[in-house]
Amino acid sequence: MNIGRERLVFGLLLCLPLLASPARAALPPQYQNAKDLDALVAFVKAHHRVIASLEGIDLSEQRVRFGNGCEARFERAPLPPGMVGPARPLTLQSANCPLD
Known about the structure:
The chain has a domain at 27-77 and 87-100. It has three helices and four strands. The protein has helices at 2-20, 29-46, 48-52, and strands spanning 54-58, 63-66, 70-76, 90-95. Strands 1-2-3-4 form a four-stranded antiparallel beta sheet. A hairpin with a 4-residue loop joins strand 1 and strand 2.
């Protein structure tokens, strides 16, 4: 009976770090918006044609508008199923005009 109790205590001690570890969570909206805006502004700064004809940055639609009806669309890769944590960074998905 004493061996069974020792195994139970040992098993609980092995599981304890899993229960005590902090869980990752998504960033609060203001911080995620700041990261997304930084990514969009970095894109604008990296492309001469875009910055020269910039019409607007739409953070909620994750788009940059420039030139005559040109648009660059951004998306983020989804996290793998069952994974939690900070959102992945925005990446350029498409542009309907040349960027440079």
